[in-house]
Batch of 3 targets.
Target 1
Amino acid sequence: MKKIKQFALITMGDLIVASAIKFFWEPNKIASGGTSGISIIIHSFFNFIPVGLLMIIMDSILFTIAVIVIGGKFGVKTLYASFCLSGSLLIMDKFVHVGAVTNNLLLAAIFGTLLSGVGMGIIFNQNASTGGTDIIAKILNKFFHIDIGKSLLLVDFLVTLLAGATLGADIGMYSLLSVIINGFMIDAVIDGFNMCKQIMIVSHKNDEISKFIMNKLERGCTIFTGKGGYTWNDTYILYTVLSRKEFIKVKEFIKEVDPTAFITVSDAREVLGHGFKDIIADD
């Protein structure tokens, strides 16, 4: 069931990214990095070749090179995400005959990138990627010892540079703007999926509160011993990590059993371990 959910989410993410390419980037020739960007540039000169088909060809070549050069240990989810994206574009080209949502380059760059960022964030959150330039980045890392993150930025920058050189400076700058926004958007989406509440509670009813957390919410908690700074009396500090909805339930429970409790809450951007995401990512 978990696998089915993961692949369903990857498919949804691919469809969102494909929509961004189909309705915003491709008709406005915005090459926002990656194999999609290169495909859009090629499609601008050879418009009888669909962008989706170009992406399939490039991804196939890159995966083959990766297997030969760097061993190519790719997860099933990454392979699926890569070819599902290009396949989705091919299907859209055949059955969805709708032009650009807007011909304004700025709006196309911004809204296309926001849409793509949401889709990519969903895909990355399932421990997958769409392949493509990730492979080039890994090759650069192996032979030139450039960090993966810097390699990805370098490859995407070169794609936008190519777009500027072949399609005009305006297109190149809007493409670069899309690359920049996309990075921030993906991070924001992933943070939104994984964000939890890190909670510390000081209360004389910690026993009841801990039982509520463990029995009703089925979450774990840890008790620390401490001393009150004013009274120097022994006290206990309860620490737990909960989802937003679970925190609301705990807060309502604490209001009932101990309205004088002291609570601190902070955002945990990612939580790994039992009950949350696995520490070791699965394929």
Note: The first helix runs from residue 2 to 28.
Target 2
Amino acid sequence: MAAPGENLRINSDRLWDSIMEMAKIGPGIAGGNNRQTVTDEDGEGRHLFKRWCDAAGLEMGVDEMGTMFARREGADPSLPPVYVGSHLDTQPTGGKYDGVLGVLGGLEVVRSLNDLGIKTKHPIVVTNWTNEEGARFAPAMMASGVFAGVLDQADVYEHTDKQGKKFGDELERIGWKGTEKVGDRKIYAFFELHIEQGPILEDEGIDIGVVTHGQGLKWLQVTLTGKEAHTGSTPMPKRRNAGLGMARVIELVHEIAMDYQPDAVGAVGHMEVFPNSRNIIAGRTVFTIDIRSPEKEVLDAMDGRIREGIETICEALDIQYKIEQVGAFDPVTFDAGCVKAIRDAAERLGYTHRNIVSGAGHDACWINRVAPTAMVMCPCVDGLSHNEAEDISKEWASAGADVLFHAVVETAEIVG
């Protein structure tokens, strides 16, 4: 297939303006965004995206998980489309670029094709996957997981947030529960542009990360149950301290992750202590463990050691434990052809690039199971993400979208 000419670039000003306009919806308290999935703010962001897609002449489809598919017709409508996109939902204290860059970068691809009067053989579909973050409703990458057949749609409809509201009910409430059956679409290839969410590209002064693999992960929710007692009058040997147990597990997770360097990571993130009173020994703690590795054998070994360690800790402290796996996916190897398209695009455009492993989960990780898939990454300042201070430069966004543009258009094939 013919490659696009190196002079073909996206409109960087329009892309940046679109990102800033979307950031006005669901503003955070410190310069970022709080546009959690299937909230009113999410609904408002979806409406803005749809208006932009309508203006670009795209046909919008919405499936039963609320995922939005904006189609630019190809010269041969019978061919499976090239899909491009990411997500518009954010963390409670999220940044303006995580996910959003990938959706609006995809929109900019078709806008630029319209500007240049370029027709592609395959249709191109810009996608906004529902609930990638998993902050309000676990697990993360929910809609793409249902699409790929690894999550059950009826089950995730019943998942509740902290207020007991069900995902399916909230999706319907904001008016974005579509009628299209999930997973029916045929995908020729899928490309996702994303900020790195790590420091490697910025530290090395590299423009583009060519994502070859994605780390596998396991999320464990641990409940430790001891006995509430007075902090002042309970003798130390008599205590059944669930808080102490949690502290020892936090240290355990760190030590195990350090044993599998350089690529493995692990930490305790969400933590709850009950009754959370200053003069009561914690009788119960609930917390989550997040472990990741690009090697399945390492991930399984870490999981096994953590479970054994928790049992040993709890036996020593005379407390009970419960471990529930609340999220998981195996390490990902992205499609060689799609990866090559990204690498070739970076070369053609004169951007510095390097292979990189994604440390975070993305919708592309699930879609890779059902279609050829790859990712493009651009740097972010200090590697900071899932934080309102998350930041990228206009130049970084433009470089990533340029590479995305070329990879998508080369795969969709220019006509004429």
Note: The first helix runs from residue 12 to 23.
Target 3
Amino acid sequence: MTTKNKLLVCFKEQKGEWVSGESISNKLSVSRTAIWKQVCNLKADGYVIESSSKKGYLLSRTPDLLLADEIREKLNTSVFGKQDIIHLKETDSTNTRAKDLASHGAPEGTVVIAEKQTKGRGRRGRSWFSPLSDGIYASLILRPAISPVVASKITLMAAVAVAESLLSLTQLDVRIKWPNDILINGKKIAGILTEISTEMDRVDYIVIGLGLNVNTSFKNTSREVRERATSILAETGKRFPRIKLIRAYLQFYEKYYEMFNKSGFEPIMSRWKELANIIGQRIIVDTISKKYIGEVLNVDDDGILILKDDQGTAHRIFSGDVTLARVS
């Protein structure tokens, strides 16, 4: 732990009380000058720290930023987020930054997180609304020892981890929409974008991009966006601490990732089906080339949707946009 991190821990242990520079100096075995330097660094990160020649220092406010030190403080993982956490105030796309890092050898568990994206991307080339400090825009680097043909399981796993995170921290009715969108009351609150680099018959790395609307307001957006998107703020009327959500997401994802490596995908897929509740539903699927209408027979372990149309023909559908069909 760096001196800066140790100092932050000291401040938080005081729980809003003044702490003298001398006591910190003795506890951390560093000079008063070194303490002042790290106080300045914490202020630059957005922490509000009062200082007094007689009283010492007081941490009066923690910034609502997804800083690496804040994420790690109560993060209960072994790998995810324990490696590098790259925090950016603004970037084009966290997936773009993560892919660049992964191609240069960044280890599994590396996280790239931004307060704002200027070119946030979703599935099928869509953009992702990424206003400053309102959502979670994060990308996780994975290096699983798997064949590319089973890489789709990693995406389904991510959807389960996001849904579990929301269920554990909110009272919202969370559902997964095939294959990996997260819905609240029929509106999209989160999306996942997976990008893969392969070498011959193995995966080199996978980047899992997450866009999660936390404190996002849609008041000044188009009617189309308001009808399709939501956030915790929009659903509850209250702002929610983003730090808690990103920690929960990394913890749930690592839990399922370890389960996948040790026990296989079946229990994870079973949970996905519970959260999706799509088997037996009558749906419409718009693909790039065709529209399908029929009943969902199953979603297999690779995430392929199996649909029986009104003529009784079964179709295996790899990707598309799903809506529930109206019952006539």
Note: The chain is about 35% helix and 25% strand.
